[in-house]
Design a protein that fits this description.
This protein is an alpha/beta fold. It has eight helices and ten strands. The protein has a domain at 1-81 and 210-267: Rossmann fold (3-Layer(aba) Sandwich). It has helices at residues 2-7, 52-60, 99-109, 116-129, 145-157, 175-191, 203-209, 243-261, and strands spanning 10-21, 24-36, 41-45, 67-72, 75-76, 84-88, 163-167, 195-199, 212-216, 223-228. Helix 3 (99-109) packs across helix 4 and helix 3 runs parallel beside helix 5. The protein is globular, with a radius of gyration of 19 Å.
């Protein structure tokens, strides 16, 4: 049983979901199944609007599926869980709080046994890890977009979640800042182990960060294709330009093309 929980640390099984809209029912997911092993990192890609963000809400317990189930560590997800941390494209930092106080916010909400001194030290250690030492007392508006996203990642990890959900956290950043943060993500995985799920439109990002890439079909989405990455652990940006990486990129591009062509059909 323990081995099964580790293999299916995150498990989505036969999930179908439909949203009620002003114009009628909108089927978003159709018999979707996928799993992520403990300390694994899965990237989910697919056409725009296919339901990728809906998957993150299901894992986080912010949404319950119409059909099927979601399990974390072998337990059904029926409500938000404190073992989950989340980071989004918009860092949503509170302007009236310093960067340090922003990072510490989850420790004020999630039950923990840390003293106030230990909470502050935990936040300071994370800020140092992502290169933000010296910016603890700054307000969010005083930082660049990339620095704010680094702070957002620290905030998502400060309560030591076992699962980290990343919903296009680097999508609004320039190419050089994105690549720098990709490297930071590998450093965080080494120092702060977690089981990760990344939603992204950037196939290069998926290849560089993930252990496995899952391609969702067009809406209503199901699991169309899975691609395991040959590399594990920290990687160099140069590896994105190897023949193997280019081959993987072309495979994923073709799968996205197929998903777009089949959007609106249910098998």
């Amino acid at each position: 049983m323990a081995s099964e929980r580790n293999t299916n640390f995150i498990k989505i099984d036969g999930v179908s979901h439909t949203f009620q809209t002003a114009t009628g029912n909108l089927p978003v997911l159709d018999d979707l199944s996928l799993s992520v092993p403990k300390n694994g990192f899965t990237a989910i890609v697919g056409p725009s609007g296919c339901g990728k963000s809906t998957v993150t809400r299901l894992i986080a317990g912010l949404l319950r599926p119409n059909i099927g189930g979601v399990w974390l560590k072998g337990e059904p997800v029926n409500s938000p869980r404190d073992i989950v941390g989340m980071a989004f494209q918009n860092p949503v930092l509170l302007e009236w709080r310093s960067i340090l106080k922003n990072v510490m916010l989850p420790l004020e909400i999630v039950p923990n046994s840390l003293s106030s001194v230990a909470r502050e030290q935990r936040a300071l250690d994370l800020l140092k890890l992502v290169g933000l030492s010296g910016f603890e007392d700054k307000k969010p508006s005083e930082l660049s977009g990339g620095m704010r996203q680094r702070a957002s990642l620290c905030r998502a990890l400060v309560h030591k979640p076992e699962i980290l959900i990343l919903d296009e956290p680097f999508g609004a950043l320039d190419a050089f800042t994105r690549e720098d943060l990709w490297q930071t993500m590998h450093q965080l995985r080494e120092k702060e182990p977690f089981t990760g799920v990344l939603i992204t439109h950037d196939l290069r990002e998926a290849i560089f960060l993930a252990d496995e890439v899952v391609v969702l079909s067009g809406r209503p989405a199901t699991t169309q294709f899975k691609q395991e990455m040959m590399e594990r652990g920290p990687r160099s940006i140069d590896q994105l330009y190897t023949p193997r990486a280019m081959e993987t990129l072309n495979i994923l591009r073709e799968q996205i093309k197929i998903a777009r062509q089949n959007e609106g059909t249910v098998s």
